[in-house]
Amino acid sequence: MSLGNDVISIVHLVERTEDRKQRYFNKTYTENEIRIIKTLSIQHVEGFFWALKESAYKAYFRVIPKVIMSPKQFEVLTFDGKGATVKTPAGLMHSKVEFTEEYIHAACSIRENGVNEIEYRVFQFKENFHQEVKTKIASYQNCGVDQVEISKDENNVPTLKLKNQHYLLSLSHDYNWGSYAYQKQSISV
Amino acid sequence: MEREEVKKKLEEIIKPYVQDMEAFGNISETTDLLQDLKINSAHLIDIVLDVEEAFDIEIDDESVEKMITVKDSVDTILACVTAAV
């Protein structure tokens, strides 16, 4: 079981000239992904694809730590604007995407339909990202902040302890946008 | 090209993408671009493109993956600059 999530601030996406866009594509995407992108008429498509790749990478990293992100190894196979499948060295990841005018967010699970078993939220934060994640989760779970703990292992992979139960957790932030995602089902540690 | 010169130029390139300016103020060779400077991974390829333009080099995919710390990045740039001569 694994999950990942990634948020990208749209206002901070880089504007690229046509020449630069081509070079970016060549370094980031497989030929198949470039074919898919050319069929899409979605603004900020690079942001979507990166969020999908990065969230899949995070899910993969949880299973096989210390792997370096290699964009082409996390290949978007299908993308319909709401969901995607991403091929990774560990198999397929199944993703859900949401976006506003301000951010793009992707959450993924290693299990088909597993993304429906993930609790996630995107929010604006001011200073202490971890503290605000804990506050949001406590509020959503109707419990005290003292019942929410976030810990990280030696590989920087986070786990959530909520009301004495442990859950797989993924965290992401970009500028003032933050997000978390955790598996609804607890795990044994 | 001297190592210090490469490092200085690299710092200028990454500065616009840095989200933790305090960490940037204490930048050293061991600084991790993503973990320490809080650069979003979405901008890593843009940094590589900026580096390629600034140093007139081409960095292959395998080398890109090694650019984790300032030291890694400087080493990669120097290797590419040397190879291009």
What are the SSEs and their pairings?
The complex is a heterodimer of chains A (189) and B (85).
Chain A: E1 3-9, H1 18-28, H2 31-39, H3 45-63, E2 75-79, E3 83-88, E4 91-99, E5 103-109, E6 118-124, H4 129-141, E7 148-152, E8 158-162, E9 165-174, E10 177-183
Antiparallel strand pairs in A: 1-5, 2-3, 3-4, 4-5, 6-10, 7-8, 8-9, 9-10
Chain B: H1 3-14, H2 21-25, H3 44-55, H4 61-66, H5 70-84
Helix pairs in contact in B: 1-3, 1-5
Which topology of chain B does CATH recognise? Non-ribosomal Peptide Synthetase Peptidyl Carrier Protein, Chain A
**Amount of helix of chain B:** 55-70%
Largest sheet of chain B: none
Uncertain regions of chain B: pLDDT < 50 for 5+ in a row? none
Strand % of chain B is: under 5%
CATH class of chain A: Alpha Beta
Give the C-level CATH assignment of chain B.
Answer: Mainly Alpha
Radius of gyration of chain B: 12 Å
Q: pLDDT average of chain B, as an integer?
A: 94
The chain pair with the largest interface is:
A-B, 23 and 17 residues
Overall geometry of chain B comes to globular
C-alpha termini separation of chain A = 14 Å
The oligomeric status of these chains comes to: heterodimer
What's the arrangement of strands in the largest beta sheet of chain A? 1-5-4-3-2
Residue share in helix of chain A? 25-40%
Task: Tell me the series of helices and strands of chain B, N- to C-terminal.
Answer: HHHHH
Low-confidence stretches of chain A: none
The major beta sheet of chain A can be summarized as: 5 strands, antiparallel
Describe the model.
The complex is a heterodimer of chains A (189) and B (85). Chain A has a five-stranded antiparallel sheet with strand order 1-5-4-3-2. In chain A, strands 6-10-9-8-7 form a five-stranded antiparallel sheet, with helices on one face. Helix content of chain A is 28%, strand content 36%. Chain A is of the alpha+beta class and 189 residues long. Chain A has a single domain, classed as 4'-phosphopantetheinyl transferase domain (Ribosomal Protein L22, Chain A). The longest helix of chain A is centred in the N-terminal third of the chain and has 19 residues, at 45-63. With 85 residues, chain B is mostly helical. Helix content of chain B is 59%, strand content 0%. Chain B is built from five helices and no strands. Chain B starts with a helix and ends with a helix. The model of chain B has no long low-confidence stretch (mean pLDDT 94). Classes of the chains: A alpha+beta (189), B mainly alpha (85). The A-B interface holds A 8-9, 12-14, 16, 20, 23-24, 27-28, 47, 50-51, 54, 68-72, 156, 174-175 and B 19, 35, 40-46, 48-49, 52, 61, 64-66, 68.
